[in-house]
Amino acid sequence: MTTRGYIKDYPRPQFVRGDWMSLNGVWDFRFDDHNAGEQERWQETFVETHKINVPFTYETRLSGIGIEEFHPYVWYNKKVHIPKEAGGKRVILHFQAVDHVAKVWINGRMAGSHQGGYAAFSFDITPYLVFGADNQITVKAEDSDSCTQPRGKQRWTKDNFECFYVQTTGIWQTVWLEYVEEQRLETVKITPDVDRSIVRFDYQVEGVETSGDLRLEAIVTLKGKPVKRVSLVIDRPCLTVEVDLIHEANGPWKKCLWSPQHPNLYDVEFVLTLDGQVVDRVFSYFGMRKISIENGRVLLNNVPIYQRLILDQGYWTDSHLTPPSEEALIEDIDSMLAMGYNGVRKHMKIEDARFLYWCDVKGLLVWSEMAATFEFHDLAVEAFTKEWLEIVRQQYNHPSIITWVPFNESWGIASILRDTRQQKFTEGIYHLTKAIDPYRPVITNDGWEHTVSDILTLHDYVENGDGFMKRYSNLEAVLTCETTCNQWKFAFAEGYEYRGQPIMITEYGGIAFRSDKGWGYGRQVLTEEEFLSRFEGLTMAIKSVDSIVGYCYTQLTDVQQEINGILKEDRTPKFPLEKIKQINMA
Q: Is the pTM of this model over 0.70?
């Protein structure tokens, strides 16, 4: 089942309008290794040297180019016909992701720029267009090998190494156009309140300066049946309305909470009218669900939940970070569910919005994790903070997201154990995240050396269950930093201590089959039986520790030289998935 406003391949399924056009497909393309393009004004007269299949980056096979060497400056150009009938409307050009800096020209005139390789952005390009004619869209993407740039698992050297893979340069998610009126709903922040039986809509509206009667209506339905209809006069750009969701005599909405077992979603239609005429119509949805922490447990809808997560880096053989199709995203989610996992830790990547949509629909919990920098510097602090806050705002409405993870394994904050500046940086990000979203847990340094985390998460690639039990038989010693949580890292940075948070093992396993083409954690196994024995021993050992309330196995798929996935990189299972499910559900 899908939501009411669902459109296949629509790039922003949480905020759907019908009047749009995908610009994916063949674009003209050119490398600019000497950064001469702007000086030579390529935006005015573009001479391509390649064709590229957007949104796949030049490093990938699906781009049609498939060159893996790093090129810091690349250019795109496409002629797009803007119909004459669109005159009088605003035309918005959307980019779901461009790594790392994007500069955009329309018919040779600068329309805007954006920095940050994982956040979506858009420009109103109306002033630069000729309606009823072809228009030239030119994009320059600037990338770097700087470790002050949020880059996640993208390598900054010539070759892959350890767990770092081929870089991603330029447009790597959907590019699209949207036709809107002057008066329109710009954003809506949707906050469910399970305890009060309400949902709050925080609106941002464009065109409020009009002299007419501007009104906004929200129509909430559940499984096609009407729930509530609320309307208000728009007299300023930002407004808030709370909607009481108790409907019918005894409030049966309580049976329609969102959870992995029952991923119930309310549809909501926002209708903006000017003097009684519809000027904007947006379809969205929300889930009534609550995440909280109490007595060392994570609660979903006020009931403790044991999280069985799997780590997913979101790479594909022929397209790297870019999903090859919407169906590929659905296939990955279905594979996780088939193995008995109720959640995913999306590792070092901000995933396509369609992935989050299908997690909402299918009931897969998500930990959303920022791509790391790898050097602590003022430039890194600035770039990281700006992009992370963009991402939190953009992903806020997805009910499947239950945890924010801005930092992982001290990447970009390598001296956090003792460096007070790096410690304060993580505290600052924690509190800024809470300022936007006080309703989800935030983990400031997943794995070890925590400062102010809502959940104590530990990474440990001990090889077998006996080794795990030996290490964690005295959990108190780990929590008080008398001993390390693995072989070399303490649970907390100096000056911080355990305060009763829930405890989870959020990386373990990483078991690989014998191969000379890649690596896993610990000794490589020879047979399916050997893999399953080790997997079961580790997983059951974690489950046997009452104080541990969940785990995350590494990992869903092989990724380039890292071959410790349960699935191969082409998504072929290495053995029947139900065998993993039997252990997870034991």
A: yes
